[in-house]
Amino acid sequence: MITETGKVIALKGNQAWVQTIRTSACQSCAARSGCGQRVLAGATSGRANQVLVLNSVDAVVGDEVTIGIDEQALLGASVIVYAVPLLLMIVGSMLAHQLSGGSDGWSILGAVSGLVAGLFCSRKLQKNKQQQYEPRLLRVNRIVSNTCL
After folding, report:
1. What is the pLDDT of residues 55-76, one digit of tens each?
2. Which keywords, in A-to-Z order, does the entry hold (predicted)?
3. Helix, coil or strand: residue 138
4. Per the confidence metrics, is the pTM higher than 0.85?
5. Average pLDDT over all residues of the chain
6. CATH 2.40.50 fits domain 2-70+134-140
7. Which of 48, 108, 38, 37 is nearest to 74 (CA)?
8. Any idea what DSSP says for residue 6?
9. With the CA atoms of 84, 89, 95 and 97 taken in that order, what torsion angle do they form, in degrees rounded to the nearest 10?
């Protein structure tokens, strides 16, 4: 499970808006010099991200919470978004190349057609398993104070 902590900033029915800022992991990561996540975090100047999640732990506005997404779901979503369109683009290009007798123009048209078909397939596959790819609210991180009066 990939987790991130955040703060509940608003409630919307049975869902909660959670605000997160992704900076702590980048400082201790060994691959930080070549990582795309760090580049994106730098481009946004550490601005907060907001995620709408199902409020399954009865969090209230102001609570610090932990949200998470399953690694397998993230891997599956990556395959659907990146690999399916790329694979269909290559297949479309090869098929058009073979059918046209080696014409570059038809190969390009086949590649574009395959890419468009791949994007539509990805969208359909994603809609079928949308719940699986959404982050979940795992727990409320209650801070217990040990002050004496």
Report:
1. 888 888 888 998 888 888 888 8
2. Membrane, Transmembrane, Transmembrane helix
3. strand
4. no
5. 81
6. yes
7. 37
8. E
9. -160
- SS3 annotation, 67-128: EEECHHHHHHHHHHHHHHHHHHHHHHHHHHHHHHCCCHHHHHHHHHHHHHHHHHHHHHHHHH
- In this structure, the number of other CB atoms found within 10 A of the CB of residue 58 comes to 10
Q: Which three-class secondary structure state does DSSP give residue 140?
A: strand
pLDDT in tens, 27-46: 556 655 555 555 555 555 55
- Does residue 107 carry a pLDDT above 90? yes
Residue 117 CA, distance from chain mean position: 22
Q: What angle do CA 118, 122, 127 make, to 5 degrees?
A: 155
Nearest residue to 49 (alpha-carbon basis) of 4, 19, 24: 19
Position 109 pLDDT exceeds 90? yes
